[in-house]
Amino acid sequence: MAIMVTGGAGYIGSHTVAELLARGEEVVVVDNLQQGHRQAVLGGKLYEGDLRDQVFLDKVFQENKIEAVIHFAANSLVGESMKLPGKYYHNNVYGTLCLLEKMNEYGVGKIVFSSTAATYGEPENVPIQETDRTLPTNAYGETKLAMEKMMKWFDTAHGIKYVSLRYFNAAGAHESGKIGEDHNPETHLIPLILQVPLGQRSHITVFGNDYATSDGTCVRDYIHVSDLADAHVLAVEKLRRGEDSGIYNLGSGNGFSVNEVIEVARQVTGHPIPAVMEQRRAGDPAVLIASSERARAELGWQPKRDKLENIIASAWAWHQANPHGYAKA
Ligand code: UDP
């Protein structure tokens, strides 16, 4: 039986596909290739199409025996979601509804979900625990929370068991050097910083230095994408054991300010990387740091690549070898 990975051609999806393949799993990737890259899919069967297309989804479920779904396919940019909330509700929320309806129709009872720290909004506590209040400050986080709640009710009504993984800030690249981060447009801090030593931008812009943090810039918890990938495999194993649904934070438990990330990148690349202060970006909470104790205890998750120097070094290796990402020129 196969594991269906929606959004498996995207950044975290492709790293999870690589991990599943390394463990000998049969993989079916479903991706509309709006953000994903065909070359990022290192194996398995790739179906190009959209979850909101019922005919397409029927074909995938009919042609494969699906044991479980790992669901990444979604739009995921905080800033864009504040300008185009409808796009996020349509693709993320309606797309997930279509997927869950089909899973129910075809009797697929396990789903691992790509969620986010953005479901919490401005945190009540640092580090954030899964039991803390969820009050998203942006439309992206609101749609991810709606997707989680939808899964809860499909579990209650139809017994579809879910594991929701709330990521903090994914970064880095696969150790093979074959896959890495390539978004278009790129909006994430670490790849944007690395564009400076690559000669693709003159400086990095820092969005706000008047937050209530030690140096005034936002603090985030950066976690290696391959450590995130590991957690998805462990989540599938939890569901295979017949355990109940659950929600887990995935982070390192360490926070770095934007200025600190830039400083580590200067050390890793040996480039001065000029930084220019700008206004705050809409929807950004000041501090997001995870408590991942529950994931460690219940999934047996152990992040192995959690030093920021190593995370940035792996990203730097990928970007140096692939300065234009998956595009050839
Ligand atoms: N950030 C920044 N300059 C940039 C891109 C991001 O200062 O050019 C900040 C952003 O405001 C946030 C942090 O870096 O505080 C991480 O942003 P990213 O978009 O990478 O991830 P997010 O936390 O939104 O998931």
UniProtKB/TrEMBL annotation:
Keyword entries, A-Z: Carbohydrate metabolism, Galactose metabolism, Isomerase, NAD
KW Transmembrane helix (keyword) present: no
Class in the EC hierarchy, top level: isomerase
EC number: 5.1.3.2
Domain of life: Bacteria
Pathway in which the depicted protein is active: Carbohydrate metabolism; galactose metabolism
Catalytic activity line of the entry: UDP-alpha-D-glucose = UDP-alpha-D-galactose
Single biological process term from Gene Ontology: galactose catabolic process via UDP-galactose, Leloir pathway
InterPro entries: Epimerase_deHydtase, NAD(P)-bd_dom_sf, UDP_G4E
Pfam families: Epimerase
Keyword NAD listed: yes
Occurrences of domain NAD-dependent epimerase/dehydratase (ranges): 3-251
Cofactor(s) the record lists: NAD(+)
GO molecular function: UDP-glucose 4-epimerase activity
NCBIfam families: galE
Quaternary assembly: Homodimer.
Protein family according to the UniProt entry: Belongs to the NAD(P)-dependent epimerase/dehydratase family.
Protein name stated in the entry: UDP-glucose 4-epimerase
Originating species: Paenibacillus thalictri
Source species taxonomy: Bacteria, Bacillati, Bacillota, Bacilli, Bacillales
